[in-house]
Amino acid sequence: MSDLSDDLRTLAEDMLETMYHAPGIGLAAPQVGITSRMFVMDCIKEDGVEGKPMVLFNPEIIATSDTKNVYEEGCLSIPEHFADVTRPAEVEMAWIDLDGNPQQQVFDGLWATCAQHELDHLDGKLFIDYLGPMKRQMITRKMTKLKREKARV
Ligand code: NI
Questions:
Q1: Is the model's pLDDT at 50 over the cut of 50?
Q2: Ion ligand 1 residues within 5 Å by Cβ
């Protein structure tokens, strides 16, 4: 992939805008109904610090650390629910950037968690899939109820 179509560029820009507006630190294509294997992220949240928007096409994990990290995760697809999720503290990822060039980078801290969370979305996996059955069921039930309420209007 050496020449990304304008459609993909537009998709990336739209997704970044949606993500910042939410506000969120990551958004995967399937979350906006697109089956493309891509996500966007920007884990810089501090006021007055310039953001670092990233667009990753065909992302893959090529290495993970043995050390783990726990973050309280939320998800734009599961509003108002948060839970501690344990994941590798560092991941090395390979992907294709917005210019069609292959990239490789080690992510740590919040970036590592976010990248893994977004990659999961591409495989239809949500952070609640890491939780125990009780907690997962509780969130799923509330989500179903929320969807039903929304469907009524
Ligand atoms: Ni999410």
A1: yes
A2: 75
